[in-house]
Amino acid sequence: MTPVPSDEPTASPQDTGKRGKWRDGEIYQSFRRRPATIGAAILLLFLIATAFLSPLFVPQNPYDAAQLDLLNAEIPPIWQADGQWPFILGTDTQGRDVLSAILYGSRVSIVIGVAAVLLSLIVGITFGLLAGYYGGIIDTLLMRLGDVLLSIPTILVAILVSSLARQALPASLRDVGAAGVLVLAIVLSSWVQYARTVRAQASVEREKEYVLAARVLHVPNRRIMLGHILPNTLTPIFVAATLNFGMAILTEATLSFLGIGMPPGQPSLGTLIRLGNDYLFSGSWWIVVFPVMQLSFLVVTVNMIGDWLRDALNPKLR
C-alpha cells in the first residue's frame, strides 16, 4: 500500500540535533534538577505577564484620576465582610483599586529595573574594556572613579543623584522625568561592578597571542575589544546583570519609599508602600501588605534565578 504523503512540516535532522544538544546541555540539565528555580521562573514570568497585560483585565487605570472615586475609599479585600466587587484586594484612601495599582506599579518598577541594568551594562562594559585594553592613565582614572563610588553606600549615591537631578529639573518636568532620574541614579551607582569584571578579563586577554596577532594584522582596536575580548566576559556579566536586576527594582522601591522616586500620581511599588505605610496599623492593612508581597515576589524570584545561573555557569561546580 502506497503511503500518503503528509503536508505537515517535519523537523530537519539538523533542527532535531540542535534541540537534542540543548536538552542534553549542562545548563538545561542543571535547571531541570532545581525545582525551586523552575518554580521561581514560572512565578516571575507570571508576574511580568500580568503586569504588562494588566490593562486588559483590571477594573481601572490607577493613573487616571477621572476613574477614582473617594466614595470607594478603603474598601477591604473581597473576602472580608465589607468587600465589594470588582475590588478584589480592596482600595486605598483615594478609591484606587489596590490590584490595579500593584500591577501598574509592577510594570513601572520592571521597566525602570530593565532600563537601569541595560544602561549600567553599556557604561560598565565600555569603561571596563577601555581600562583593561589600554591600561595606563585611562585605567587609573576610570578605576579610581569606581573606587570612589564604591566607598559610598549605593543607596546614598542614588539618593544624592536623584535629589540633585530633581532639583535641576523645572517643577513642571519633575513628575514626567521621574523615571529617567531614577534610572540615572541607579546606573551611576551600579556600573562599577560590570566595569571591574570586564577590566579584569580584558587585562588578561590583551596579552594573549590571538590579540597580539590581531594587532600585527592592524585589526582596529574597537573590533578587537568588541569581537574578541568582550565575548570572553559575557558569562560573569550575564550572571551579575541578572542579580542586579532584582537589586535595581529594590533600589527604585527604596527611593520611591523615601519620597524621591515616582510621584503619587504614577505610583511604582515603592510609592504604593510609602502611601500605605501610614495606614498599616489603622485597620487598612491591605494598602501596604499586598504591594510589599508583590515586591518581595519579584526580587526573590529574580535572585533565585540569578543564584542558579551563577552555579550553573561556574565550571568549578559542574
Automatic annotation (TrEMBL):
Principal cellular location given in the protein's record: membrane
A GO-annotated cellular component: plasma membrane
Region spans: Disordered: 1-21
Highest taxon listed in the record's lineage: Bacteria
Biological process annotations from GO: transmembrane transport
Domain annotation ABC transmembrane type-1: ranges: 106-306
Spans through the membrane: 38-58, 108-133, 145-164, 176-194, 229-250, 285-309
InterPro entries found in the cross-reference section: BP-dependent_transpt_permease, MetI-like, MetI-like_sf, OppC_N
UniProt entry keywords in alphabetical sequence: Cell membrane, Membrane, Transmembrane, Transmembrane helix, Transport
Gene3D superfamilies: MetI-like
Subcellular location, record wording: Cell membrane
Membrane topology: Multi-pass membrane protein
Family named by the database record: Belongs to the binding-protein-dependent transport system permease family.
Entry protein name: ABC transporter permease
Organism this protein belongs to: Paracoccus methylarcula
Lineage: Bacteria, Pseudomonadati, Pseudomonadota, Alphaproteobacteria, Rhodobacterales
